[in-house]
Write a structure and sequence with these properties.
This protein has helices spanning 19-33, 50-58, 75-85, 105-113, 130-147, 163-167, 179-185, 212-227, 231-259, 265-294, 301-305; strands spanning 5-12, 36-43, 64-69, 90-93, 118-123, 159-162, 190-195, 308-312. Helices cover 48% and strands 15% of the residues. It is built from eleven helices and eight strands. An eight-stranded mixed β-sheet has the order 7-5-6-4-1-2-3-8, sandwiched between helices. InterPro entries: Glyco_trans_2-like, Glycosyltransferase_2, Nucleotide-diphossugar_trans.
Length: 320
């Protein structure tokens, strides 16, 4: 018997109409693959009975795990909660709206066997409108321009990766969209597979067309990547550059004020800019020291556990 242990991770917010079908279809695929698995649903503050629908199936399917939040905290945090408790050597993330097809899971697993550490889905025919397709293409282009990594469909939530890759993630804000980029920057080998994309049959999409937070996270990632390891060094170098610019501006101010136009507005502007750049240059090293001391204490495991309302652990079904 193949004893590969897979964790299926499904964050959900008000998806009561679809979660039962999603599990049953996933179960059929896993049974055909003859692998042991757990199905982790993260109920992110649903008010429509999403968790209760899956609880009905859990009585006869002990491989179901349900983690519930008191209120909605967003997809990034929901995924991190699941990663903390997942026991599988391989993790598969899917959306709960049935637009991701569980029948495509074998494609991801086959790609991992080929030596990839993380595999993302590339939706071949999107069923959520032309505008969303255009927005996704623009986002992929922006990631390429700012981060230098090319992805065909970085926004796709259907992914598979090793437990080692999952352990490296520290998702905040809406950083779940950048998981492939985060994995690649830590040395993971990333690949993509073509997948089907079904139209939404139940409820409404929880995602905005214009995802400004995702854009902000791209910029934040670019900044964090340069400061995460040694912020003191980075900000000290920035401070030095700012101080040099300020000193040059102050020197120019002296030349203008005493040599050409002592009463003109230009000298006041140069004085203000010079002082501002020198002030920034002085403060930057202190800001870097502060970041150096604080970055390791944000959003740690202990803090995330305080947000959990209830967690029902899946039983070990390896011998079933």
């Amino acid at each position: 018997m193949n004893t590969t242990h897979i964790s299926i991770v499904v964050p959900a917010f008000n998806e009561a109409e679809s979660v039962q079908e999603l599990f049953l279809r996933t179960k059929k695929v896993m049974d055909e693959l003859n692998v042991t698995y757990e199905f982790i649903l993260v109920d992110d503050g649903s008010t429509d009975g999403t968790a209760e629908r899956l609880m009905e199936l859990r009585r006869e399917n002990p491989q179901i795990a349900i983690l519930r939040h008191y209120r909605n905290h967003g997809k990034s945090l929901a995924l991190m909660q699941a990663f903390d408790v997942a026991r599988g050597r391989i993790l598969v993330t899917m959306d709960a709206d049935l637009q991701d097809q569980p029948e495509d899971i074998p494609k991801f697993l086959a790609k991992l066997v080929d030596g990839y550490d993380m595999v993302g889905g590339c939706r071949q025919s999107r069923e959520d409108g032309k505008l969303r397709w255009i927005a996704s293409k623009l986002f992929n282009w922006l990631v390429y321009k700012l981060a230098g990594s090319h992805f065909k469909d970085i926004n796709c939530g259907f992914k598979a990766f090793t437990h080692d890759v999952a352990s490296r993630f520290d998702l905040r804000g809406d950083m779940h969209r950048l998981m492939p980029l985060l994995a690649v920057t830590t040395g993971a080998r990333f690949g993509e597979v073509p997948i089907d994309h079904a139209p939404r049959r139940y409820g409404v999409s929880k995602y905005r067309l214009v995802r400004h937070r995702g854009l902000l996270d791209v910029f934040a990632f670019s900044a964090i990547r340069s400061t995460q390891t040694r912020p003191f060094h980075v900000f000290t170098e920035m401070g030095f550059s700012s101080s040099v610019i300020g000193i040059l501006l102050l020197g120019l101010w002296l030349a203008v004020a005493y040599g050409f136009d002592s009463a003109g507005a230009s000298s006041a502007i140069l004085l203000g800019l010079g002082c501002w750049f020198v002030l920034v240059g002085t403060l930057c090293p202190f800001f870097g020291l502060h970041l150096e001391a604080m970055t390791s204490y944000l959003n740690d495991t202990a803090w995330r556990k305080t947000l959990i309302k209830h967690y029902s652990e899946a039983e070990d079904v390896s011998d079933v």
